[in-house]
Write a structure and sequence with these properties.
- The protein folds into 2 domains: about 180 residues, Orthogonal Bundle (Triger factor/SurA peptide-binding fold); about 110 residues, Roll (Chitinase A, domain 3).
- The longest helix is centred in the C-terminal third of the chain and has 31 residues.
- The strands form 3 sheets. A 4-stranded antiparallel sheet has the order 5-4-7-6, with helices on both faces.
- Strand 6 and strand 7 form a beta hairpin.
- Helix 2 packs across helix 3 and helix 4 packs across helix 6.
- The two termini are about 50 Å apart.
- The protein has 11 helices and 9 strands.
- With about 325 residues, the protein is an alpha+beta fold.
Length: about 325
């Protein structure tokens, strides 16, 4: 089990005294400090994904984050308690071994930098890893008598859900775009310039210029130009004018007139057409057995957690955003 998963999920240690407790699970307290630490971790993660939460502008979202994070801490506490009930134990050596696996991928200095960047002390990391190993042990214990899906079950599912296993009809084309959309200036002039550019490119292609190279050099479509204008789509994916023009081409053919869409003028060349195809059971058998097995494991885990929560004495003292009454 990779320690990276531990660091991303940010599992925290519980039981830091009863002062400023925001929730209890079977009498075990979760403190405001623990909640604040995990919320800070979540905010750091969101920031790394380009979402920087502002205290003044995003106060409601931050309150929701508090509530959501506390629910995660409550769930984690329940699972750790259940693991201990089942006699699952984690030693200091187990924790050190797990941390060592992660440290193998970097120098000691880089490891310390990583901890500092993520607001983790050495002790807190050990507590996180211990919690994660307990929950991992609970998962293994819970699934030790689990039987994977059978071929017969997969076959039955396949026969009842054949539409799930159809490869959609698709068109692989290359195209060059003379852009008008989003450009500032006189619309008629921009339209004329784009059409003139497209006609000029068509003439060069007629003279033997390579389509992919011309797309890289001339196309103004940022999504496909670097790939030589390569674009694969199924019916309904592209704008109607583009789709209609592409459908009228045979492999190797290109449009001899610019195709106007809301984006501008396109030159389209058909590379390959793939008709709709029903996949056979043999083609998808192994992946379907894996899918059904994973879904059954997930259902068993969810049922276990639901039952554990139902039987737990949970006191959530944090005001939820939806509970706040508006004046």
């Amino acid at each position: 089990m990779a320690l990276l998963v531990v660091l991303l999920t940010v599992i925290l240690a519980a039981g830091c005294g009863q002062s400023n407790v925001v929730a209890t699970v079977n009498g075990e307290g979760i403190t405001r400090q623990q909640l604040d630490e995990m919320v800070s971790d979540m905010k750091r993660y969101y920031k790394s994904q380009g979402l920087n939460l502002d205290e003044s502008k995003d106060s409601e979202m931050l309150k929701s984050l508090d509530s959501m994070t506390l629910e995660q801490l409550i769930t984690q506490t329940i699972l750790v308690q259940e693991a201990k009930k089942m006699g699952i134990k984690v030693t200091k050596e187990d924790v050190e071994k797990e941390i060592s696996k992660y440290k193998e991928s970097m120098t000691e200095e880089k490891f310390k930098e990583y901890l500092q960047k993520n607001g983790l002390s050495g002790e807190r990391l050990k507590e996180m890893v211990e919690k994660d190993l307990l929950i991992y042990g609970l998962q293994k214990k819970m699934l030790e008598d689990f039987k994977p899906a059978t071929e017969d079950q997969a076959k039955e599912y396949y026969e009842k859900n054949k539409k799930e296993f159809v490869t959609r009809e698709s068109y692989q084309v290359r195209h060059i775009l003379a852009l008008t959309d989003g450009k500032e200036g006189d619309k008629a002039k921009l339209d004329l310039e784009a059409r003139t550019k497209a006609l000029s490119i068509i003439e060069q292609l007629k003279q033997g210029k390579d389509f992919a190279e011309m797309a890289k050099e001339k196309s103004e479509d940022p999504g496909t130009a670097a790939q030589g204008g390569l674009y694969t789509f199924s019916p309904g994916d592209a704008v109607p004018e583009f789709e209609a023009a592409a459908k009228g081409l045979k492999p190797g053919q290109m449009t001899m007139e610019p195709v106007k869409t809301t984006y501008g003028y396109h030159i389209i060349k058909m590379d390959k057409y793939t008709p709709e195809k029903q996949k056979s059971f043999d083609e998808i058998k192994e992946s379907l057995i894996t899918k059904l097995t994973d879904e059954a494991k997930q259902q068993k885990a969810e049922k276990f957690l639901e039952e554990a929560k139902k039987n737990a004495q949970i006191v959530n003292k944090l005001e939820k955003p939806e509970d706040k009454k508006t004046p």
